[in-house]
Amino acid sequence: IPGYGDSPSAEMVVTVQGRVAFLDHVLQELGMQRPVLVSPSMSGRFALPFLLAHGDRLSGFVPIAPVGTKDYTAEQYRRLQTPTLILYGDRDTGLAPQALQNLKHLPEHHVVVLPGAGHACYLDKPEDFHRALLGFLRQLK
Questions:
Q1: pLDDT by residue (tens digit) across 58-117?
Q2: Which pTM was predicted?
Q3: Which amino acids are annotated catalytic?
Q4: How many Cβ atoms from other residues are within 10 Å of residue 91's Cβ?
Q5: Is residue 113 part of a domain?
Q6: Domain AB hydrolase-1 spans what residues (predicted)?
Q7: What is the domain extent for residue 64?
Q8: Is the dihedral of CA 113, 110, 38, 11 positive or negative?
């Protein structure tokens, strides 16, 4: 993600609209039509505004304790019909509960908590993570 980790920052992603445009560009360049957007942690700054702007272009959404959930209202979340798998580790006592508090307003959501996993639950419990993710993908239309 531009501006995170060791990647250089990019002027384009300074604004919410720029982050939506960036993610839209990436998906177009990859030729993705109706992808499932998996969004761990800091990627929430990109995925959440994209979801709110273009949720109808996604087959599904998988937030994993993303940042930025409190930037949107319960009503904004309630308008979305994108099937969502909210995934997090039960040892993530900081960001995960806050994200769940906001994301639970998504009407088409299911929650999976991975026991013994922290914030990066996909690294702590990869088999459980993949089982939950594949189960969600199988039930999508």
A1: 999 999 999 999 999 999 999 999 999 999 999 999 899 999 999 999 999 999 999 999
A2: 0.93
A3: 41, 92, 119
A4: 15
A5: yes
A6: 71-126
A7: 34-139
A8: negative
